[in-house]
């Protein structure tokens, strides 16, 4: 009877039924694999015997309390390597063991950003450098690296200085009290300055964020829209579900705001690309230019198809949002923390100012900036104590034996000098945790003390960072491509701002906290709705 009925069903319905059965089978297989992994890792694998804090919630795991002080307490209790529970009680390895971290960040064929994380980034920012892996990543990195090399950054220093001067003029024009102090949210100004810089330096695009007389550009509005979506306060559940359960992407579309912002960015990106191509073809643009857009466009126009060097239009356009976000958010956060630290340590602010004022120029070269020893110590200490990017994660894409410098003792009392990482296992890479590790920096590791850089502890040599002795820009093939750019920009900002202004906090220090997110930005307790900010009292240096 059933057979007869099936035979008379119209073809489209039979097709739909077959597709539905297939979808159920695929989802069923995925769920079964996840359940198997979960049970195996939790109860039967060697991983299940790694010590770590108890799991307070099956849904949130230890996620709700995963702060720097808490992880430091766990380090003291369980050692540099332990296990914790993330969302839905999935186990995750935490390690500040430099031998293990060295392998994790240098073997990017084994340890990669988890597919779920990449999907989420892809949705927000497009298929930029941040989300690519393997050959695609190597190719992009090779093309773009010259835009961030020393000689290119040297050439950009005048732009960093000019934009820093523009910011200082903007602040100098803010209404002040009778005593000369003006109350300013320094983070807002620094964000505007760094966005202007990456727009011009990377893509020859003027955001004009600092020029309040000009109206906001279309790209700026789209960017702000996109940016609020990337902020941790605005994480809606929809993208998380889409990233975690790929099948839901068929029936859960992106939010309208996000789709609209992405469309605008893609359209303007395409226009910038077409303009740059036309300029190159007409000979208006010199062919040896090494700014990011020129390098991307040259690869886009390359005839070297055999070598697979040609980049599609879509890949070029996809780099814009990535660089706009990665290129301004972090540097503005780092410089905000620098001003915070200098306000909290007035004696350091005075010493720095004396050094900077000893230079008789408003337009120092990069070499001159790099030749200022106290500025170097201050910047290093800011990047150590206030690492703007707190952490990142990696997933083992294949089984691996992870070596450890410091063995751990499992819950049965057995000592191990390595960990078996099964394919799919996640590891937390604690950037700030390692930068403040007391085993390296001593008991005062959390204190801001620039003079500690006079004699770097021997143990800091083991930190596998691209910028020696610090993990702030990570290391290995995915190290921060913009690290030199960022340091030069930050030094230029401090050079101009500290020579021009005195800085004090405008709110009590205990009212400043941070949101729990990968990028640590300050917020004022009671004013969380305003988002990240740092209100300061700013006054022209009294001579
Ligand atoms: C203080 C400033 C900065 C800090 C602390 C910082 C930190 C980092 C870190 C930790 C990573 C590795 C992320 C991971 O693999 O999980 C990274 C990657 C990256 N950063 Fe930065 N960054 C800064 C400034 C910049 C600037 C100014 C740019 C661009 C102009 C930039 C562009 C990128 C890009 C494109 C990547 C991806 C690199 C790759 O995967 O090959 N960053 N950054």
TrEMBL record:
Its cofactor is heme. Its main location: membrane. Keywords: Heme, Iron, Membrane, Metal-binding, Monooxygenase, Oxidoreductase, Transmembrane, Transmembrane helix. CDD domains: CYP_FUM15-like (cd11069). The keyword Membrane applies. Pfam families: p450. The keyword Metal-binding applies. Heme binds at residue 480. GO terms for cellular component: membrane. It is found in: Membrane. InterPro entries: Cyt_P450 (IPR001128), Cyt_P450_E_grp-IV (IPR002403), Cyt_P450_sf (IPR036396), Cytochrome_P450_monoxygenase (IPR050121). Pathway: Secondary metabolite biosynthesis; terpenoid biosynthesis. GO terms for molecular function: heme binding; iron ion binding; monooxygenase activity; oxidoreductase activity, acting on paired donors, with incorporation or reduction of molecular oxygen. Belongs to the cytochrome P450 family. This is Cytochrome P450.
């Amino acid at each position: 009877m059933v057979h007869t009925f099936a035979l008379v069903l119209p073809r489209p319905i039979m097709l739909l039924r077959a597709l539905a059965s297939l979808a159920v089978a695929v989802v069923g297989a995925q769920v079964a694999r996840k359940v198997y992994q979960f049970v195996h890792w939790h109860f039967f694998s060697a991983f299940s015997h790694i010590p770590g804090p108890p799991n307070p919630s099956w849904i949130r795991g230890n996620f709700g309390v995963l702060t720097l002080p808490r992880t430091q307490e766990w380090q003291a209790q369980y050692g540099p390597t332990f296990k914790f529970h993330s969302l839905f009680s999935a186990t995750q390895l935490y390690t500040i063991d430099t031998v293990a971290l060295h392998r994790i960040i240098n073997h990017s064929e084994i340890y990669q950003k988890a597919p779920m994380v990449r999907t989420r980034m892809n949705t927000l920012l497009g298929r930029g450098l941040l989300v690519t892996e393997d050959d695609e990543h190597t190719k992009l990195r090779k093309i773009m690296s010259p835009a961030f090399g020393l000689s290119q950054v040297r050439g950009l220093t005048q732009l960093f200085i000019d934009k820093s001067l523009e910011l200082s003029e903007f602040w100098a024009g803010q209404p002040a009290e009778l005593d000369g102090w003006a109350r300013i949210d320094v983070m807002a100004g620094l964000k505007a300055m760094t966005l202007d810089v990456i727009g011009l330096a990377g893509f020859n695009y003027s955001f004009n964020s600092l020029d309040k007389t000009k109206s906001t550009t279309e790209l700026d509005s789209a960017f702000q829209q996109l940016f609020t979506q990337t902020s941790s306060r605005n994480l809606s559940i929809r993208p998380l579900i889409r990233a975690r359960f790929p099948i839901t992407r068929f029936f859960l579309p992106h939010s309208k705001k996000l789709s609209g912002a992405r469309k605008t960015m893609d359209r303007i990106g395409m226009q910038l690309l077409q303009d740059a191509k036309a300029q190159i073809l007409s000979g208006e643009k010199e062919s040896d230019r090494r700014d990011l857009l020129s390098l991307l466009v040259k690869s886009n126009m390359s005839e070297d198809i055999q070598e697979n060097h040609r980049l599609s239009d879509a890949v070029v356009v996809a780099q814009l949002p990535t660089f706009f976000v990665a290129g301004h958010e972090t540097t503005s956060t780092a410089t905000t923390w620098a001003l915070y630290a200098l306000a909290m340590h007035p004696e350091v602010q005075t010493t720095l100012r004396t050094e900077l004022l000893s230079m008789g120029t408003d337009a120092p070269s990069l070499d001159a900036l790099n030749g200022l020893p106290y500025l170097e110590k201050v910047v290093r200490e800011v990047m150590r104590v206030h690492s703007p990017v707190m952490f990142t994660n990696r997933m083992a894409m294949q089984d691996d034996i992870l070596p450890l410098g410091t063995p751990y003792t499992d819950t049965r009392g057995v000592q191990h000098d390595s960990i078996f990482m099964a394919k799919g296992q996640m590891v937390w890479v604690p950037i700030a945790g390692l930068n403040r590790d007391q085993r390296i920096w001593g008991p005062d590791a959390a204190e801001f003390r620039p003079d500690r850089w006079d004699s770097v502890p021997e143990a800091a040599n083991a930190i596998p960072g691209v910028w020696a002795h610090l993990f702030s820009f990570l290391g290995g093939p995915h190290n921060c491509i913009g690290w030199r750019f960022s340091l030069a920009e930050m030094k230029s900002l401090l050079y101009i701002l500290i020579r021009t202004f005195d800085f004090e906090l405008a709110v009590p220090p205990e009212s400043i906290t941070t949101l729990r997110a990968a990028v640590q930005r300050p917020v004022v307790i009671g004013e969380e709705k305003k988002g990240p900010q740092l209100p300061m009292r700013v006054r022209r240096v009294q001579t």
